[in-house]
Specification:
The protein has 169 residues and is mainly alpha-helical. It has a domain of 58 residues. Helix content is 49%, strand content 4%. A two-stranded antiparallel sheet has the order 1-2. The longest helix is centred in the C-terminal third of the chain and has 18 residues. The chain is flat.
Length: 169
């Protein structure tokens, strides 16, 4: 099916704000789940800079290392590590608990909201005329302006290419 798509850099914070604003945190009976909304608001208040800084508070140890629980399963019981990483562990455990509450909704509401937000970057053009295509492009342009703040990563050794430049002969 013909479509116009773009890649937008959504974050978890964008997704949570979207879910709060559109009332996606619903219980099975259709009412808004205050517990999940509060967990999302608390998650949005997480101090990620402090978390990233405190991750390295224990010299020579990375608590976010992949497969750490398999390599050193009782690392949290080590008094030196636990003392050094006290702030990191409290922030990380709180964020993990909040995310569990956020994702605990019925009918995979978190995944459905994520897919709904991702579908904002796709506009199907089945039976579309020129005006619909123009509106789709405008929609995606506005979304891109709002969410894409990344600058292209151009390596230093690559310069811009201009066809027909004299020095290419």
């Amino acid at each position: 099916m013909p479509a116009i798509t773009t890649e937008i850099s959504f974050t978890v914070n964008d997704l949570l704000r979207y879910m709060i604003e559109t009332g996606k945190f619903c219980d099975a009976n259709g009412t808004i789940s205050e517990a999940r909304v509060e967990a999302a608001q608390a998650y949005l208040q997480t101090d990620w800079e402090t978390l990233a800084k405190e991750r390295w508070s224990s010299p020579g140890f990375d608590p976010a290392r992949p497969d750490l629980d398999k390599i050193k399963p009782r690392w949290r019981e080590d008094p030196a590590i636990a003392r050094n990483l006290e702030i990191y562990l409290s922030l990380k455990d709180a964020a993990d608990e909040q995310m569990e509450v956020i994702k605990s909704g019925p009918d995979d509401e978190y995944l459905k909201a994520q897919n709904a937000l991702l579908m904002c970057q796709r506009v199907d053009l089945f039976c579309a005329g020129p005006s619909e295509v123009e509106e789709a492009v405008k929609h995606l342009l506005n979304l891109g302006k709002q969410f894409n703040t990344m600058k292209p990563d151009m390596p230093e050794y690559i310069t811009e290419f201009y066809p027909g430049a004299a020095d290419l002969e």
